[in-house]
Give the backbone structure.
Amino acid sequence: MTETKIIPIFPLDLVLFPRQELPLRIFEPRYKQLVDDCMLGDGQFGVCLIDENNSINGWNSPKIVGTIAKISKCEDIGLDGLQLHIETIGRNSFRIKRIIPPSISQPPNYDPLSAEGHQEISDIHEKVGTEEKMYIQAEVEFIPEIDESISLEKWEKLVELWKKKIIRQALPQVVEPHSLDHVLEQYYLNTDTPTVDYVYSLSAIGAKDPYELQPILEATTMDELINQVEKLLTAE
């Protein structure tokens, strides 16, 4: 039987890949509670792309597959203690088996950026009990990492597809292929020994929005991963 674990979930409008760095500014009370709880525990939470078609108690719902984020640094922004800056790095991916809804529902006309909105959430939290979790949790099972290697030939094919896509998207402006080599250098993607991390990074700079990256995160074999990246890089 597959081992599962209950973790906090942070739905975001991005896809986090394993071993990618992700800095976050935390200002909502429910996510400050999430970070506080993580800092008292193992420093880990789940990052999932927002599922635009669903919600949980009025809050953004997560996609089923996400990535563990490990907090490496946490500090207050300013002197009021109302905002946090955290630095995280992606670990392995996971699949949600069961959602645990938050203890409070999103209030009508809630503004997460306003002091009034924060006070409203804090007041509701006082009523339901401050020990209750304001954030989504989930029982998850971890997905084994892709440990297969990618051949240099396949990697170079993906790079060529990426260049063609960028050149195509830039029309009628002309982009010289050699100028794209500088972009690859900036992202440290010039290599003779490609790994799965290079494939993830190339996908990230080839996508127009994070929803194009979700199928890539969900790939569980190198063949499936390459197939999904090829779809991304050849899509109009």
User: Anything to note?
Assistant: Residues 94 and 142 are 4 Å apart (CA to CA). The radius of gyration is 20 Å. The chain has two domains: 4-142, 152-234. The chain has a mean pLDDT of 94.
